[in-house]
Amino acid sequence: MSSPSVVRITRQARPILSSNHAEARRRVLALYRAWCRQIPFIVIDYDVPYTRKQCLEKLRSEFLKNKYITDVRVIDLLIIKGQMELTEVISMWKPIGNLLNHFKDTHNPKPKDFLGKFYAGHE
């Protein structure tokens, strides 16, 4: 059993920015809109080999990855990280390689036919 002081301390954990889910949602949507407004400038400034529409789709998929997070403190930390990343991108502090890592395909299927295996260096 936990002591009453431990229970009291865990109940008194304060939120980082948002006090409830509605406020956290408002902050997430504001961050999403800020990224959407900056994407045309990012495509031009970084000379990204993707269209504005592809960048918007990638942005949406990055935000939807975290849609099942319910803890307000975790949401607030993700908002802070997103704001920091946006600031780095706008200020051109982030190299283009780091920016394009978001577009990297992480799943490389194994080749199944003979030529595919040969080109990949498999037997």
Description of the structure:
The chain has 123 residues and is mostly helical. Helices cover 63% and strands 0% of the residues. It contains six helices and no strands. It has helices spanning 4-11, 21-46, 52-64, 72-90, 96-100, 114-120. Helix 2 runs parallel beside helix 4 (72-90). 5% of the residues are buried. The model has no long low-confidence stretch (mean pLDDT 87). Its main location: mitochondrion. InterPro entries: Complex1_LYR_dom (IPR008011), Complex1_LYR_NDUFA6_LYRM6 (IPR045299), NADH_Ub_cplx-1_asu_su-6 (IPR016488). Mammalian complex I is composed of 45 different subunits. Residues 26-87 form the Complex 1 LYR protein domain. Keywords: Electron transport, Membrane, Mitochondrion, Mitochondrion inner membrane, Respiratory chain, Transport, Ubiquinone.
Task: List key phrases describing it.
Complex1_LYR_NDUFA6_LYRM6, mainly alpha, transport, Complex1_LYR_dom, membrane, 123 residues, NADH_Ub_cplx-1_asu_su-6
What is the overall pLDDT average? 87
- State the secondary-structure class: mainly alpha
Give the DSSP E fraction (strand runs of 2 or more residues).
under 5%
Which outline best applies? extended
- The value of Rg in angstroms is 21 Å
Helix content: 55-70%
Strand segment tally: 0
Cα-to-Cα separation, first versus last residue: 59 Å
Domain Complex 1 LYR protein: 26-87
InterPro entries: Complex1_LYR_dom, Complex1_LYR_NDUFA6_LYRM6, NADH_Ub_cplx-1_asu_su-6
Keywords: Electron transport, Membrane, Mitochondrion, Mitochondrion inner membrane, Respiratory chain, Transport, Ubiquinone
Protein name: NADH dehydrogenase [ubiquinone] 1 alpha subcomplex subunit 6
